[in-house]
Specification:
This protein has helices at residues 15-44, 49-66, 81-115. It is mainly alpha-helical.
Length: 131
């Protein structure tokens, strides 16, 4: 599942190199979004531990790559703007999914904590199975 991506030249000399460098950067970003979406799918579907580990490693590898990008590509070519917007929307969707999952996880943890047997509390616990 892991992809190896080398960085584009830091300062393209001409327009063709500049567009190619931006295309390369967006390709790497798309692979990153794919890896995150695959990781979320693997975690959500309770896939086997190997699939989860591979997806986690792919995301970590891509994160290391993006720490190396320094913004030296300059402004994005207009013809790539739509693709960049689509990738941004996918990133935002993945982030929103993670946020909702974290909130649900905290709620489940609080509910589980409240249901633990506490002999000293002396308060009966009722669970509304219809809710």
């Amino acid at each position: 599942m892991s992809h190896t991506v080398s960085l584009p030249p830091t300062r393209p000399a001409d327009g063709a190199q500049w567009r190619a460098a931006w295309t390369h950067a967006l390709d790497a970003l798309e692979l990153d979004v794919n890896d995150v979406e695959n990781l979320l799918d693997a975690l959500h579907s309770a896939a086997d531990a190997t699939a989860q580990t591979e997806a986690t490693e792919a995301v970590a590898q891509r994160a290391r790559l993006f720490h190396q990008l320094d913004g030296s590509l300059g402004p994005m070519p207009m013809e790539l703007a739509h693709r960049a917007r689509v990738l941004l929307a996918r990133q935002l969707d993945a982030g929103a999914y993670l946020s909702r999952a974290m909130v649900a996880n905290r709620r489940h943890a609080r509910a589980a904590e409240e249901m633990q047997v506490r002999p000293h509390a002396g308060i009966p616990l009722y669970v509304d199975a219809e809710a």
